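[step 3/7] fold_predict: job queued, chain A
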Amino acid sequence: MSDPAQRIRALLLARGVDWPAAIECFESVASTNDVAKDLARTGAPQWTTVLAGEQTAGRGRHGHAWHSSRGGLFVSVLLRPSFPVSQVALLPFAAGVAVAEGVSDLGVAVRLKWPNDVLADGRKLAGILVETSGLGEAQPSAVVGVGLNLRLSANEIPAELQERAVSIEALTDGDPGVEAAAAAVLSRLTVWYHALERRGAPAVLAAWRGWSIDWWGRRVSALCAGSVVQGVLQGIDDRGALLLRRDDGTELALLSGEVSEIRRTE
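[step 4/7] structure written:
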């Protein structure tokens, strides 16, 4: 079986998932999310998947670059959500739980950092980017993109990221391979997408909290539209907004689109 898409399908089937749409595999693309969005515009069905050996212009939230050299998992999945927009906004949380469970299944202990980072050993192991279009229209789309570091040598990581990024190989002395990692993540994505669809926000947010880093009750600073807001983390609300209690006692709800960075200050 030489076709990587066929191997991924076989691995998914071994996990009890008969993948219902095309898996498009590329050697190199600018961005798997962009390819998936192009496919969405041509009417591609839900669960159409794009996987690339490398991305030349990978990105995260707020247009930040995502280092995407060979040896990582770069995959995007097209979804066609029919549930309310308020639930669609929680797709990054459902995807975060899916990635955390999939990576855990590969033998790596991880935690989730609000809103879309997957950390291992305090460093970034994976990131999630969800992009939506046409919500409330006849054919809405949501593209869930995942970048997961499977292996990274020191000379492949930009100097500014070497203390902040980590790979599965660095943590375990082993590389599960792109296909096994894809099957692990995609199989859990189906579970949590359907959980969001059928059970709504409470189930997804409860699972997300169970995987989250223990910053609750700690003081943090958040960069919001060029301004720094400081306070004590209280939790997240039913929208997935981060709740921050400021020094004057007032509570602020920060939506993920408003915050470009959050750090502990104590």
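[step 5/7] annotate
The helical segments are 4-14, 32-41, 85-88, 91-105, 168-172, 178-199, 201-211.
The first strand starts at residue 23 and ends at 29.
exit 0
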